[in-house]
């Protein structure tokens, strides 16, 4: 196994404690492993241009990050990890997360242990926990992709969940749910959540969904305040195609 050649370091913004932690970790990495290229986001590079003159700046997202980044360090909370997930259109490289936020469902490492944790990663003495993401596309009633400013919205990647919600509409919404083209149910509710095991501890949990271990590959369909008391969360295989359609009676 070849040692990593580049690392992307991402911090929680607007926080002095994460500023200090980033400077400490990046300076240690540069001194201890000068062969590793350290990449930061443009706003971080601009803020610390005097303290960190040796870092690289990536102006792109998606395919460029996938091509050049070997692993990612996050400094913050769960929201920082979700931000990192949004940077990659395809596979996300290994992520090591140091807890400095308010929520820590996804954060197994404490900041004071960053040296030993990073040494293990660089030497390859680690095990990986794979987490699935959802790929979401949006279509109108004519079978065409929804556009924004006359530009088609492509597939979106979600680490936690996708939800179809009534928004500001004051009444319950009727949503037709299909799985692999087969009709599953007609839900009358505030909305429906499609969650990953990672997202099972987020919005889905607040709506009454179960907690699923990340290694259990599955999808959770959780209703949001359903009218029917018999509509409970449903667990589905991870490779199914789920279609949610707003029923004509809601339009």
From TrEMBL:
Citing just one GO molecular function, the answer is:
NAD+ kinase activity
Q: What protein family does this chain belong to?
A: Belongs to the NAD kinase family.
Q: What is this protein called?
A: ATP-NAD kinase
Which keywords does this chain's UniProt record carry? ATP-binding, Kinase, NAD, NADP, Nucleotide-binding, Transferase
Output the superkingdom of the source species: Eukaryota
Q: Which species expresses this protein natively?
A: Rhizophagus irregularis
Report the SUPFAM superfamilies cross-referenced here.
Answer: NAD kinase/diacylglycerol kinase-like
- The question of whether Nucleotide-binding is a record keyword is answered with yes
Pfam short name (any one): NAD_kinase_C
**PANTHER family in the cross-refs:** NAD KINASE, NADH KINASE POS5, MITOCHONDRIAL
Kindly list the biological process annotations in GO that this record carries.
NAD+ metabolic process; NADP+ biosynthetic process
Keyword NADP on entry: yes
């Amino acid at each position: 196994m070849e040692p990593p050649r580049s690392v992307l370091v991402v911090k929680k913004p607007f926080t002095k404690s994460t500023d200090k932690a980033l400077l400490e970790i990046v300076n240690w990495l540069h001194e201890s492993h000068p062969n590793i290229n350290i990449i930061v986001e443009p706003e971080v590079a601009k803020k610390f241009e005097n303290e960190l003159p040796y870092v690289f700046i990536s102006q792109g997202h998606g395919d460029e990050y996938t091509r050049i980044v070997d692993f990612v360090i996050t400094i913050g909370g769960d929201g920082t990890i979700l931000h990192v997930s949004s940077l990659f259109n395809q596979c996300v490289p290994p992520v090591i997360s140091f807890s400095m936020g308010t929520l820590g469902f996804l954060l197994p490492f404490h900041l004071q242990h960053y040296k030993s944790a990073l040494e293990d990663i660089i030497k390859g003495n680690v095990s990986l926990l794979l987490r699935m993401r959802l790929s979401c596309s949006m279509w109108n009633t004519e079978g065409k992709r929804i556009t924004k400013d006359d530009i088609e919205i492509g597939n979106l990647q979600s680490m936690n969940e996708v939800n179809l919600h009534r928004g500001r509409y004051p009444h319950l919404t009727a949503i037709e749910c299909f799985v692999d083209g087969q009709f599953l149910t007609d839900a009358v509710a505030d909305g429906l959540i499609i969650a990953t095991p990672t997202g099972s501890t987020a919005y889905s949990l607040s709506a009454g969904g179960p907690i699923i271990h990340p290694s259990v590959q599955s999808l959770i369909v959780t209703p949001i305040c359903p009218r029917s008391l018999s509509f409970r969360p449903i667990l589905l295989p991870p490779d199914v195609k789920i279609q949610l359609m707003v029923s004509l009676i809601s339009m």
